[in-house]
Automatic annotation (TrEMBL):
Beta-defensin domain segment(s): 26-55
Known role: Has antibacterial activity.
Domain of life: Eukaryota
UniProt-recorded name of the protein: Beta-defensin
Lineage: Eukaryota, Metazoa, Chordata, Craniata, Vertebrata
Subcellular location: Secreted
Length: 71
């Protein structure tokens, strides 16, 4: 009886664990998230390998490229 109860609890817990790679795809050195749409607090940087958008929070924008020095 105890083993049956333990099995039921284990199955219930495993049912609530999110899938490994489908919902939590990361991009931009782990700072962004691959999504179909970016939220209002995020900006689009580039495409992820699966074709979705790489969304970064506005505070984590990529640094601007340095301007070349004019002589």
């Amino acid at each position: 009886m105890t083993q049956l109860l333990l099995l039921i609890v284990a199955l219930l817990v495993l049912g609530h664990v999110p899938p490994g790679r489908s919902e939590f795809k990361r991009c931009w050195k782990g700072q962004g998230a691959c999504r179909t749409y970016c939220t209002r607090q995020e900006t689009y940087m580039h495409l992820c390998p699966d074709g979705s958008l790489c969304c970064l929070p506005y505070g984590l924008k990529a640094p601007a490229a340095p301007k070349p020095e004019s002589v």
